[in-house]
Amino acid sequence: MIRGTLTVAWKDFRVLVTSPMFLTVSGLCACIWSYNYLPQIFQFEKVAQRAFQSGGLNIHQTLFASHIARANIILIFAIPALTMRLLAEEKKMRTYDLLLTVPITAAQIAIGKFLAGFAAGLVLLSLSFIYPLGTFFISNFSLGPLFTSYLGMALVTGIYVAIGLFASSVTESVVLAVILALILNLSLWFLGQAAEISDQATLTAVMEHISVPQQFVSFLKGTLRISSLTFFVSTLAFFVFLSERVVESSRWR
Hints:
The protein has helices spanning 2-17, 20-51, 59-83, 88-92, 96-101, 106-135, 144-169, 174-197, 201-209, 212-220, 226-251. It is globular, with a radius of gyration of 20 Å. It contains eleven helices and no strands. The protein is mainly α. α1 (2-17) packs across α6, α7 packs across α8 and α8 (174-197) packs across α9 (201-209).
């Protein structure tokens, strides 16, 4: 099973990262992050010098958190643009039926395509990681919170990819796949607000548990909670499972 999964993953990963879409998205991401991050370093240096007498500033909360927030916003929109190719474009190009005739299971197809999209998403995320990591060579700070923050971002990226794969599996239209994935991605971040307006304790507790911001904040603080890790892994596994069900159902049509 592993060999078939890795074969699908490697084939789709090569297609994704060598596509004009991926190169364009990567270039735009690098331009946006460079445009925003580099001026912020100089601004942080000026503010930090003035705040030195009062105990200094926390670089993680002042500089890195805002950079990660911008990276997250870009990934919300960029990942669906990449994952639409995983299944929707195969249907559009009429290669999906050929894929279903290959002697591999629906689970191998779904997991392989998820791994390909996840690896491509991590390439994009690593581009944003270069900026705060490069700051370490000109400033002295603890790397622990930075690594845990990006571990959290890697898991969030995995959820975006799993959602994009599911959206790509239910339609032949790449445009519809992008729109559906965008709606689901944004919904993850706004579910927490439902907890604030609800007056029912049970509903509030459920909404807070499935709220990505609530679960992600521990990573930003430099701590790893088993409940948060479980939430992220189970959420992405759920959407990969849904994609596998859609692929499996296609074999019987």
